[in-house]
Amino acid sequence: MDCAIRIAGLVKSYGDVVAVAGLDLEVRRGECFGLLGPNGAGKTTTIEILEGLLAPSAGTVEVLGLRWDRQPDELRARIGVALQETKLFDRLTVEETLRLFRTFYGGRATLSVETLLDEMQLGEKRETWVMKLSGGQRQRLAVALGLIGDPEVLFLDEPTTGLDPQSRRALWDTIAALRARGKTVVLTTHYMDEAERLCDRVAIVDHGKGIALGTPAELIDRSGGQHLVEVTTDPALPPEAFAGLDGMRAVRAQGDGFTLSIDGPHVALPALVARLAERGVRPTRLVSRTATLDDVFLSLTGRTLRED
Fold first, then answer.
1. How does pLDDT run across 99-115, given as a tens digit for each residue?
2. How far apart are the first and last CA of the chain?
């Protein structure tokens, strides 16, 4: 396997506070890889170590076969970075900002300003001051600055946080296009729909540790199936009332009802309705839906991704 990134036993601590607690990961060349987890899970700390902004307390990190403590200049030339928030010069235009950052790379900047303006859909804003850009336009500019050296690996830390839905989807299209060009993209996010849409593989981290790794579909299947049924009844039933239902994998209490992990609605739903009728109860809520990565996180930790 051709790896772009290898992490082994990564630890980062600040006194008694451990931000990353022995993380092991490998990222393949040419894939979009997601680090998922709630705020405080260690995602940003991990990616800042990969970017060379922080030094690890323990463990080893290799990016493109290189290490920050041995080949920092070569690494900087071969990666691109878009931080959670990029501070830029408000009274420079988009084009001026790109030309300024391009000079930082000297002869290594292989992408032209015109190419970046076109790829990031910023051509109409080339003469606009940075301070006049929308949140989505600023994020696209930040990604353009990360790409100006035509990097082999691009790091994106929470790239769509705070953006409106239209801006989020525009940036999703940009990231998908980068992956199609063979770039390795590593992104952190706490939006599970974003990870399912963009990532070839994801690692779910919590309290500084990796708790699951695989494709979105693999993780969903391991957690109990591709489909869920949420049911609340009157009167309420105990969990054992659902035992032995055709097509059911697992049952989990949730709120005042239950969530059933099932293999297929066409099998499980008729069996569930028949079981409720046998017991003389009526469903006050019955919802069938596709499982998501948020359900994976809930099954692994007992809490939702949005809970602190």
1. 999 988 877 767 889 99
2. 36
